[in-house]
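Batch manifest line 249
LIGAND: coenzyme A
JOB: complex structure
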Amino acid sequence: MVDRSNVFSRVNASFFICRPRSMDTHGVEISLGRIFSTPCECAWRKASEGQSYSLSAAERHATRGFAPKREQEFVAGRLAAHECLARLRCSIETIPIGSDREPIWPDGIVGSISHSTSLAVAVAARAAEVVALGIDLEKADAVSPDLWPLILTEAERDWLDRKPDFERRNWATVMYSTKEAFFKYQFPITRLWIDYSAVTVAIFEKDGYVQLKTESHMQIGHRRSDTHLGRFDCGEQFVLAGFSQTNGQ
Ligand SMILES: CC(C)(COP(=O)(O)OP(=O)(O)OC[C@H]1O[C@@H](n2cnc3c(N)ncnc32)[C@H](O)[C@@H]1OP(=O)(O)O)[C@@H](O)C(=O)NCCC(=O)NCCS
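JOB STATUS: finished
ARTIFACT:
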C-alpha cells in the first residue's frame, strides 16, 4: 500500500485517449443484474448534453470548471445514483463530493458510481443490509499493452502470457476494472490509497468471479482477509466489475 502517486493520473490520462463513443446499454443492464443481486439497486444513465437541469443547485455548482465531457459523465453518474436512492425510498437533493472525490451517500446507505464516456452506472443499498459496494465500468479492450507494466503485477502478466494473443487485452481490462472496483469498495471504510501493484487479481473465467489478493489482511465490514471475492462480466463493448459484501457475509 502506498501513497497516491502520479501512476493514477498517467493511467487515467491514457484511458481518456482510448475511451469509447457508445456503450451497449442493454448489455450493461444485464451485467449489472448479474454482478449485484438483491438487496442492491443498480441504475445506468447515458452521458449526454443538457441533463444537468435535473440535478440540485449544489450538484450543478460542483460541476463548475468541469470540461463538457467530464460534466456529462458526472451528471449521468449522479442521475443514476439518484435513481438508486429513489428505489430505496431514500431520495435526497444532493449527493455531495467527499474530500477524496468519493460520493457522500445519505446516512444508512452505501453505494458506488462509475462512468465510461457515454454511460454511467451506479449501485446503492441500505447499510443495514450491505456493508460495502464498489463498481467499475470500462470500454472493452481499453487496457493496451503499454499500460500493463503500470497496473499489472508480474504474476498477472505471466497469466496473460499464457492466454491467446487476441484475449489478452480483454483480460487485462478485467484485471484493471477489478482493481478500480475494489478501490471504491474499500475506500469509504479504510481511507487507504492502494497501488495497482499492491493487489493481484485472479480471474475465474467461466464463473464470472475475480479474486483480489491484498498484500496484508484488510478489515472491510465484518471480514478481515487478504482475499476478496468480486464479480465481473464482459459485453461486446464493455467490461463491468463489482464487489459487494452483505451483512453477515
Ligand atoms: C477514483 C478512481 C478509483 C476512479 O476514477 P475514474 O478513472 O474517473 O473512474 P470511474 O469513472 O470508474 O469512477 C469515478 C467515480 O468514482 C467515485 N470515486 C471517486 N473517488 C472515489 C473514492 N476515493 N472512493 C470511492 N469512490 C470514488 C466517484 O463517484 C467518481 O465519479 P464522480 O467524480 O463523477 O462522482 C481512480 O482514478 C483512482 O484514483 N484510483 C486510485 C487507486 C486505485 O484504483 N488502485 C487500484 C488498486 S486497489
